[in-house]
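Example 9 (inverse folding). The structure is encoded as follows.
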């Protein structure tokens, strides 16, 4: 292991290049169970207030490795959505419009709005970023069984470089003369999401507004800029029998100038209560996932990544845990139906 405080100027610049010119937003293994993290169009998709808290410790054992925590909340708005607004009092009796039976007789949801909030904290070595974004989405039915949602996320990111953790070979290096190590920057993202009872597809962009970070220099070689992150994803649900469903999905990530990469996932669900899964991330890792929908109020998911890159020699893998809370769950569903 190495100490960030003993890194030379060259290595620090390399670290910045990786964070500022490549993957600048956190990555998640369990994103498939909370695609709202990547796409604001999922705001208000389920007929309850969806709250999720997650923690990810990446490359455990490597000092200065990424650590991410987040809190997300979103809910639908609109009295015509699934026989009533999610903020209304629970209805008495009647067919649960989010039951497994209903998914087999699926009808597109009535036009409605969705709103939400994401708070994400990510720390890698001396670099910390906290993003706070409000989201909005509009959902409408394109056909009798197909929905389309369009969403936007807007807010701010707080970027901090802890200079006490950086020691330079040359303390007088001119590149570091004008470092702004504590910044607030505007943030903007957009997304679209098409979904039915047994499949989904989405496209989103994060960091639409390029921003200069930390180093102020007229030399482009030392300019640190954010870059847009593009995400394309899709998946479908297969009912193997009355109790077991299979959900294959894929995520394509495009972040210039690094090569395009992808995740392939598989989730097996038993009676909408217990699920097991596996994931492969190109040139990075394999992962095992498991979770349980404890009740109509709370669910828990856990994943462990087995590192396959060169970092496996210094890392014991990646842990990620997510806790979900279903508020105003008027039909007492235990498993999300629209986001699977």
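The amino acid assigned to each position is listed next.
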């Amino acid at each position: 292991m190495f100490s960030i405080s003993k890194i030379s100027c060259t290595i620090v610049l390399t670290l910045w290049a990786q964070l500022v010119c490549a993957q600048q937003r956190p990555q998640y293994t369990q994103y498939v169970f909370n695609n709202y993290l990547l796409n604001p169009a999922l705001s208000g998709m389920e007929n309850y207030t969806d709250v999720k808290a997650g923690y990810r410790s990446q490359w455990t054992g490597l000092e200065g490795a990424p650590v991410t925590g987040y809190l997300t909340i979103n809910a639908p708005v609109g009295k015509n959505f699934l026989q009533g607004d999610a903020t209304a009092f629970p209805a008495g009796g009647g067919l649960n419009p989010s039951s497994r039976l209903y998914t087999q007789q699926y009808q597109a949801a009535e036009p409605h709005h969705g709103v939400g909030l994401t708070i994400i904290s990510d720390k890698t070595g001396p670099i910390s970023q906290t993003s706070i974004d409000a989201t909005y989405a509009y959902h409408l039915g394109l056909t009798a069984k197909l929905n389309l949602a369009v969403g936007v996320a807007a807010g701010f990111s707080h970027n901090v470089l802890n200079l006490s953790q950086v020691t330079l070979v040359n303390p007088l290096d001119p590149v570091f003369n004008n470092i702004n190590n504590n910044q607030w920057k505007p943030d903007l993202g957009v997304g679209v999401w098409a979904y039915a009872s047994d499949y989904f597809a989405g496209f989103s962009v994060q960091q639409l507004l390029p921003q200069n970070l930390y180093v102020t220099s007229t030399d482009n070689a030392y300019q640190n800029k954010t870059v847009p992150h593009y995400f394309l994803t899709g998946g479908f649900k297969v009912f193997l029998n009355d109790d077991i469903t299979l959900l294959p999905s894929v995520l394509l990530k495009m972040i210039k100038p690094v090569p395009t990469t992808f995740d392939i996932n598989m989730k097996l669900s038993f009676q909408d209560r217990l699920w097991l899964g596996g994931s492969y991330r190109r040139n990075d890792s394999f992962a095992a996932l498991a979770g349980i929908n404890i009740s109509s109020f709370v669910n828990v998911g856990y994943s462990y990544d087995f590192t396959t890159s060169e970092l496996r020699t210094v890392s014991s893998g990646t842990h990620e845990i997510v806790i979900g809370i279903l508020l105003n769950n008027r039909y007492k569903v235990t498993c999300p139906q629209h986001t699977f």
